[in-house]
């Protein structure tokens, strides 16, 4: 197509004109999608290797999820939690069963699930553990990414996320990720929780050393501290198991879930924990107008059912092996390291070759969408419906970009 007949340049400009510049998107304007593929306003197709930061684990417009959404749209969309609706019980029961926990508390965004986890941990600390009023602390990790609220950015170590948003919420201690000795040192009698991503996604798909998560579990049990696993990006099949913690045989006290829970259709997040933890909340103490709404529950219940089959976890394990084998073959050919689990990979580029942003732009030109992070790292997190051939295609495009 002749360059000046393309709709993309004008559509990119148009999209920028009336928005705050809190994102720096790749210059692609998507208008439709199916499975692992998206199509732009000029009809060009791209293999989606970001999958909405794992919000699209089941691909774009998974037929079962779309059918559930359509059916629910025709019946009931919102009640608020002032009333009970008929999609609520199934969702809560089935998600609690998937998590192996007694209770769930539905919210909307990931950040809200994290905020909920923090509030519940503090209340648990005061009411169950017996921490003196307003003395609770929560230990978190360097390089964390848990969302964008003022409290959450208070314990971020990323200056872009944090700078000029103070005053900051107190009550958090930051220790190096993967360092059990430092964590042990930081925990004291007023510690109510350790809040961690089992794999740090935004940091570049950083997998902690083997034994770290079981060590955190042991420490938390010994010191009467809640282990809160932020599985918002790592959970729901991404790493080859329902939860990334499972890879190390670890069960946290609280799961924070989001992204894929909404099936790529609606924002749905949740906290799952046992009654001795989530039971500390009483009416009026926490909530959200949209949390647990009928449309969200109808879609998310089907998400839980898809996960209960085990098919997506299996695909992630098997296809992830293929992805990682392919990518490891590029170490020394433009990549300096590849990390990750399942269909989730962080690729460190040789910084002398190009930046992560440049690599993503070149991948985009070759019809593959991915996202850079922290300078020279790119993340690949394709939908779990991706095929072997599509993985080989993605790896071949990465190889071609690295080869210049
Ligand atoms: C691990 C983790 N926690 C929390 C969040 C925040 O989720 P949301 O953007 O839905 O608020 C994210 C988003 O990327 C995340 O990766």
TrEMBL record:
Family matches, as SUPFAM superfamilies: PLP-dependent transferases (SSF53383)
Keywords: Aminotransferase, Pyridoxal phosphate, Transferase
Entries under PROSITE patterns matching the protein: AA_TRANSFER_CLASS_3
Keyword Transport appears in the UniProt entry: no
EC number of the protein: 2.6.1.13
Residues passing through the membrane, by range: none
Metabolic or biological pathway, per its Swiss-Prot or TrEMBL entry: Amino-acid biosynthesis; L-proline biosynthesis; L-glutamate 5-semialdehyde from L-ornithine: step 1/1
InterPro entries in the cross-refs: Aminotrans_3 (IPR005814), Aminotrans_3_PPA_site (IPR049704), Class-III_PLP-dep_AT (IPR050103), Orn_aminotrans (IPR010164), PyrdxlP-dep_Trfase (IPR015424), PyrdxlP-dep_Trfase_major (IPR015421), PyrdxlP-dep_Trfase_small (IPR015422)
Cofactor: pyridoxal 5'-phosphate
A Pfam family the protein falls into: Aminotran_3
Family, similarity comment: Belongs to the class-III pyridoxal-phosphate-dependent aminotransferase family.
PANTHER family associated with the record: AMINOTRANSFERASE CLASS III, ORNITHINE AMINOTRANSFERASE, MITOCHONDRIAL
Protein name, UniProt field: ornithine aminotransferase
Organism: Micromonospora lutea
High-level lineage: Bacteria, Bacillati, Actinomycetota, Actinomycetes, Micromonosporales
